[in-house]
Amino acid sequence: MTTTIVEKLRKQIESFEVTTTPEGVGTVVSVGDGVAEIDGLPNALMAEMLEFDISSDISLSETIQDTERVFGMALNLEEHSVRAVILGDTRNVNE
Amino acid sequence: MKAQEYAQALYVATRGKEEEEAERILQNFIRILEMHGHKKILTSVERELEKLVRRYGCQGELHVRVANENDADVLSSKIERDIQTLGADTLPRKVVVDETLVGGYELRALGTRIDRTYKRSLLTLYNKLITN
Fold first, then answer.
1. CA-to-CA distance for A88 and B84, rounded, in angstroms?
2. Domains of chain A by range and CATH?
3. What's the predicted TM-score (pTM) here?
4. Nearest CA in chain B to A57
5. Does residue B28 sit in helix, strand or coil?
6. pLDDT tens profile B43-90
7. Facing residues of A37 across strands?
8. Closest approach of chain B CAs to the CA of A52, in angstroms?
9. Are the Cβ atoms of A12 and B122 closer than 8 angstroms?
10. Which of A94, B3, B37, B97 is buried most deeply by CB count within 10 Å?
């Protein structure tokens, strides 16, 4: 059983390819009542899913141990900012 | 809404001014707030002003984050190529060393990011392994 799992992991690691593409990013300027105000993201679309980068400034092990991925949905598209509903633990989203 | 407008006005009025002149403008600004009976929104104006400074202050900068200073030299040719992809080769650079990145580099300019850090790769691998 263990050997099968290890073998499966080994294969996945071997076939893992890193693909990096430029991605639009913004800065969270305020968080409250489950809503984040994000500066930037001029190309965000209505109801688009966003991912909050909660790994910023914390170590890899802390990121893996303490937090889950946090997503949001863009609902208010303003001239310089976007307001998104946070779909997850709002405590992980910081200004 | 009023706080945003006041902050915008204050930002435009103080932009590029000497410290003394900016201080004088700020005192006048507070007096104007008092005259209009809006002094209680001063804290909100301050918050909006911080947003404006953050928004416009870093707009024309290229942020390069590396895990250690050595990486910046070793990966310089790759970094330069990605900077051209971002179209940010003429922007002033700000290099930050962040050990949590493990290795590689991250570029951020003009609202776009290229993340080639080992940390990102390892996180992607981790998420792939736990979801399959």
1. 36
2. 22-92 (2.40.30.20)
3. 0.73
4. B100
5. helix
6. 988 888 887 877 776 667 889 999 988 888 888 899 999 999 888 888
7. A30, A83
8. 13
9. no
10. B3
